[in-house]
């Protein structure tokens, strides 16, 4: 008898909170450079049997950015630190294929997988903020389609490097003086248009073979990459039907590349504002809205639409701006929402302040659980990337109040049954040379 | 009353041991991917009140490399992990200015300093192995002098990025809605010949201002860089007089750049083989020598001399090879030793197998302490980079048997009196914009 399908849960740690005013809540603690807070959140997620914690990233800043992003610890080093204070939970972070070297990134992620005993995940991004280019001595952020071509090649390159050594290379035979099995070390000799790396990588094959590959592109090029290689897909959807169509499309693409539809997990973002009653939850959201900085909120919306919004009338309908090469999934979802609900720019700005465009569920723990169950059972999601409005107590409430309901309903694990992120997700360990 | 001058001690962790046959000793544990071993070594060093642990690095491998280098965890992620399981000890690693991006490395090191509460050190290398170039899609390793010009610019660039934010940028004033003091964020706009980065860096100023800067170049260009910026200098010397001359030269250079001679600490490498009696220590060294793989030993020597040695007669005198652009300090020290002691290539190979060219002290704990004291008091060293022949027990012996003698003689601290690496070394925290 096969066990019933269960949802997967990730905790998206943006430590000043996902709501732009989250940090101002009375119980919120200081932001994204607060290691002690991040450690407690990761341990709480592990207590809640989450599949993974996830750290986003960007390689630029400005003072009016989202408070969780303006100043922050670097995610790869932070994951390495978290590997020492957690035991089971997956540890994933964003790293850019546009602004890192394959040989270096292969080592960082490989080390995290080794040190954590097989818990590393990698969110492959091509760089969502055009400002980043100038931090790397380049005049221009490459165009959208070129960034995806680079990403595809980058992934092929790091996979080749990760397969430099076959499994079982360590010998450590003191008597015979045999340290490694040299015949198991190979020189990948990867040569591409954008990236070349001869290798071998100076690291044995990692416990998971490759880290769990995460992707979030919603454009045609992004979906194509996801269908080929992604094992978790982050998505931004307000509408269950749209999310279901997205899931179906991605699983179809995966199948067309010879993959199992079960090996690509679609996990839309969800921000839950939880109250003892629905009215209390709504009051919390209102309080958050009153504390939001309108300038920062407009900047966050501008990043997501990919256009500078200064000069637009806040009380006019959302302007019909053409899609840019940046954050296309967000832009499309937000434009669709604005059209459907006839929102003004001010209304859309306030919505984005709350959840950065992701689905927002406001209510009791039961209502939140219902909202997750509905999408999960409809095939509109394999799980959810939980985006608490602030840390730590808004996330504590989710773990303490929503997770037990999901467990009681048989929708979520009671205990870990695996010790690797691939294990939690039911993903196979890739064969060597795969 | 000023306290007496005390030596500084670092533990150079090459986890399969510094002697190429160290891993074969009965008590040796498996090598450089063994996180648990590295954690215990770092904790032992902290128990011994060491100033720092140090992780070397290279961005290439081959099966016949030194066993500690062939397969290894990546040092920056490893330091981040160590920051969680240690409290006081400094955490330093090598990172290359030739094969990383300033914006990325500034973040990695900055995060380690934040997470460790001010314990990060950075060994600035320009890349000692020419093979590395092809791992980064480049045809050729840049020439020696160009690598140093790049390094100088790289350091200026990361310092500018580290000073993106003035101290005290965090406000976190919930009532006023004031998250940071935006006036304290600046755009460095660094533009160089090799590296440019506009900034700002997305991180507040780190606890130490900058990580402790470590350097090991022995060439004219390397000494010049060290005199300008290094706070710890690693060196390879067999002869006390040569080491004293090196110390004097570097301190003179530092003074010529307007720095205090006390703010540049010269720490030559020392490999100690410790026995209950001198005869026992010598037997251990012999046993190690018998276990050494001659092919690997010759390869290690070839790397240090910067020349392929295949075809040379092992029983003829060491050939007088011209200095290459690689590891010049090692090459010069080894050539001088070979001349002075009229060594054959085989004898030099066996010497390098033991300590990779560094000073080797073989004897009782008292003799080892004497050997350190002599150089320290002669002004030939400010401290020592301890290179145990294997881990963990050869290092445990140093901590348990040599350190107490140094402490009893007043030559080394009994307790930590600071919580940052700068504090242990008596180095000032750099002013913002310095």
Name the descriptors.
two-stranded antiparallel ribbon; alpha/beta; 434 residues; globular; 14% strand; TIM Barrel; homodimer; 40% helix
Could you outline the blueprint of secondary structure elements for this entry?
2 copies of one chain form a homodimer.
Chain A: E1 8-12, H1 35-47, E2 52-55, H2 67-70, H3 75-83, E3 90-96, H4 102-116, E4 120-125, H5 144-162, E5 170-173, E6 178-180, E7 190-191, E8 196-197, E9 212-215, H6 220-229, E10 232-235, H7 240-256, E11 265-274, H8 278-291, H9 294-305, H10 328-341, H11 345-355, E12 359-363, H12 365-377, E13 383-386, H13 393-408, H14 421-425
Parallel strand pairs in A: 1-2, 1-13, 2-3, 3-4, 4-9, 9-10, 10-11, 11-12, 11-13
Antiparallel strand pairs in A: 5-6, 7-8
Helix pairs in contact in A: 3-4, 4-5, 6-7, 9-11, 12-13
Architecture overview:
The structure is a homodimer of 434-residue chains. Chain A has 434 residues and is α/β, with parallel strands linked by helices. Chain A has a single domain (8-272, 359-425), classed as TIM Barrel (Alpha-Beta Barrel), CATH 3.20.20.30. Chain A has helices at 35-47, 67-70, 75-83, 102-116, 144-162, 220-229, 240-256, 278-291, 294-305, 328-341, 345-355, 365-377, 393-408, 421-425; strands spanning 8-12, 52-55, 90-96, 120-125, 170-173, 178-180, 190-191, 196-197, 212-215, 232-235, 265-274, 359-363, 383-386. In chain A, the strands form three sheets. An eight-stranded parallel β-barrel of chain A has the order 1-2-3-4-9-10-11-13, surrounded by eight helices. Chain A has a two-stranded antiparallel ribbon with strand order 5-6. In chain A, strands 7-8 form a two-stranded antiparallel sheet. At the A-B interface, helix 2, helix 3, helix 4 and strand 8 of A face helix 2, helix 3, helix 4 and strand 8 of B.
């Amino acid at each position: 008898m096969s066990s019933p399908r269960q949802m997967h849960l990730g905790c998206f740690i943006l430590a000043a909170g996902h709501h732009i005013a989250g940090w101002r809540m009375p119980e919120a603690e200081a932001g994204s450079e607060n290691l002690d807070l991040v450690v407690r959140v990761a341990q709480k997620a592990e207590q809640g049997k989450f599949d993974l914690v996830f750290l986003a990233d960007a390689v630029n800043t400005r003072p009016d950015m989202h408070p969780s992003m303006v100043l922050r610890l670097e995610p790869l080093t932070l994951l390495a630190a978290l590997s020492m204070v957690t035991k089971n939970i997956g540890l994933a972070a964003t790293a850019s294929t546009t602004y890192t070297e394959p040989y270096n990134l292969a080592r960082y992620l490989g080390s995290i997988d080794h040190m954590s005993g097989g818990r590393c995940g990698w969110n492959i991004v091509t760089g969502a903020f055009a400002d980043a280019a100038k931090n790397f001595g380049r005049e221009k952020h490459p165009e959208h389609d070129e960034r995806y071509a680079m990403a595809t090649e980058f992934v092929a390159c790091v996979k080749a490097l990760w397969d430099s050594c076959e499994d079982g290379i360590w010998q450590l035979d003191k008597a015979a003086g045999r340290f490694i099995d040299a015949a198991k070390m190979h020189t990948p000799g990867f040569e591409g248009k954008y990236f070349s790396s001869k290798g071998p990588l100076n690291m044995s094959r990692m416990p998971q073979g490759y880290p769990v590959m995460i992707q979030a592109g919603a454009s045609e090029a992004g979906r194509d990459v996801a269908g080929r290689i992604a094992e978790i897909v982050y998505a931004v959807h307000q509408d269950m039907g749209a999310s279901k169509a997205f899931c179906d499309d991605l699983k179809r693409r995966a199948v067309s590349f010879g993959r199992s539809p079960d090996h690509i997990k679609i996990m839309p973002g969800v921000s839950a504002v939880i109250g003892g009653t629905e009215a209390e939850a709504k009051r919390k959201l209102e309080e958050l809205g009153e504390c939001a900085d309108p300038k920062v909120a407009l900047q966050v919306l501008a990043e997501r639409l990919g256009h500078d919004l200064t000069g637009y009338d806040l009380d006019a309908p959302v302007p019909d701006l053409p899609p840019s090469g940046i954050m296309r999934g967000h832009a499309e979802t937000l434009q669709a929402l604005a059209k459907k609900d006839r929102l003004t720019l001010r209304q859309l700005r306030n919505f984005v302040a709350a959840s950065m465009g992701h689905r927002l569920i406001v209510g009791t723990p039961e209502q939140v659980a219902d909202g997750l169950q509905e999408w999960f059972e409809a095939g509109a999601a394999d799980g959810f990337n939980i985006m608490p409005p602030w840390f730590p107590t808004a996330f504590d409430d989710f773990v303490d109040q929503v997770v037990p309901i999901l467990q009681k309903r048989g929708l979520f694990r009671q205990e870990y049954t695996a010790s690797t992120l691939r294990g939690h997700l039911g993903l196979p360990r890739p064969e060597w040379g795969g």
